[in-house]
Each structure stands twice: as structure tokens, then as C-alpha cells.
Design goal:
The chain is of the alpha+beta class. It is built from three helices and eleven strands. The chain is about 10% helix and about 25% strand. The chain is globular.
């Protein structure tokens, strides 16, 4: 959750990246805290989806530097989802060099998509795109896409902690066991500002 009624995810989770109006994902459901088939705080429908024009038109690989998206979550029983889950902060134009907690639900072998996993790792390298995508060492596989990279992770809440500063986007055979994210620059900040509160 990035705002009281908005999620942040990868662009390829919501659109095919082929420039077609029919490329959007449909019947999207958000299940926070999913674990082994259980939905402890419910299943929330997503009424609207957004992604960047770069991902929408250019896809993989030319749009990977803007491979992020958002979705508007419908209220459930009169309650906004953020009141149940908490909300991550957001930072942009930060140094690449940091430690991140990447979170996801990897589903490709040896994982099964039924549990949340995470990697606590430091910046590894920059790669393709403008601004350059970047990686951490992480063995999460396909299915983890769209998960947050949390900078200054701390349990509970604290000032200047737990803010979104990356997104599980892609891996490459050139750098096995590394997970890449777009860099959050002013484009990401404008995208964030446009999501509903």
C-alpha cells in the first residue's frame, strides 16, 4: 500500500507493454498478507489501473526503466484498505547505494507462490535504461514481481523509515540471483502524486 486507497506494483503486472488498449489486466484482486491460501484481512477489488507511458508503449526491454504501476482499491465494508494494512512512505532521487528489503511472492521453482518472502540486500549494480535500473542480490523468482523495495526497513512505524524506493521488476541470465528495479526519479514522484489518496 502506497496511499490509503492505492497500491504500487510493476507495470508488467497490469499491462502487457504492447501499446494496445486491450493489454490491461482484468479482474484484479489484492489480497494483503496472503499466506497458504488464507486471506486474513480480506480480498479487495481493484477498480482502476495505471502504468507509465514508457512501459505501456515500449514494454520489455525498452520500458523496464519505468516498469511500475498503480491501482485504486475499492473500500470494503466502508473502510479504506490503508486503515487495515498501514501505508509505506515514498522517496525518490535517492542514492543507489543503500540496503533494501525486497518483498514478494515468488512462484517459480523452488518457490510455490503461497508465502511472502524477502531479501535484505545492498545495492549491487546498475544496468539498462535511463535512468538506469539497478539490482540487489536476491534469489526470488517469477511471481515476486511488483513487490516493494523498502528502504530503511523497521518493524512498526518510525520517522524516515519504511519507504518505497524500488519495485521487483526483472531478472536476467547475465546476472543470476540478482533482482532488478527501476530507479525512482522525478518521473516516479509525478506518477506517485497522480495516484488517488
Amino acid at each position: 500500500m502506497i496511499k490509503n486507497r492505492s497500491i504500487w506494483t510493476a507495470g508488467h503486472c497490469v499491462h502487457a507493454g504492447d501499446g494496445r488498449s486491450g493489454g490491461w489486466s482484468t479482474d484484479v484482486i489484492f489480497v494483503p498478507q496472503y499466506r497458504n491460501g488464507n486471506a486474513p484481512i480480506g480480498q479487495w477489488t481493484v477498480s482502476r489501473l495505471w502504468t507509465t507511458s514508457d512501459w505501456y508503449y515500449n514494454g520489455n526491454p525498452n520500458g523496464l526503466d519505468h516498469d511500475y504501476a498503480g491501482g485504486q482499491i475499492n473500500d470494503l465494508n466502508g473502510r479504506a484498505i490503508g486503515s487495515r494494512t498501514g501505508i509505506l512512505g515514498f522517496k525518490y532521487n535517492q542514492s543507489y547505494s543503500a540496503t533494501y528489503r525486497a518483498v514478494g511472492y515468488p512462484a517459480a521453482d523452488p518457490f510455490d507462490g503461497q508465502r511472502m518472502w524477502y531479501c535484505n540486500r545492498s545495492f549491487q549494480r546498475t544496468y539498462i535504461g535511463s535512468p538506469a535500473t539497478f539490482s540487489i542480490r536476491c534469489d526470488m523468482t517469477g511471481g515476486s514481481s511488483g513487490g516493494p523495495w523498502i528502504r530503511n526497513f523497521q518493524s512498526g512505524s518510525s520517522s524516515n523509515a519504511n519507504y518505497l524506493n524500488g519495485t521487483n521488476s526483472f531478472g536476467t541470465s547475465f546476472y543470476p540471483n540478482e533482482l532488478f528495479s527501476p530507479y525512482f526519479d522525478s518521473d516516479a514522484e509525478r506518477f506517485y502524486d497522480g495516484l488517488p489518496s
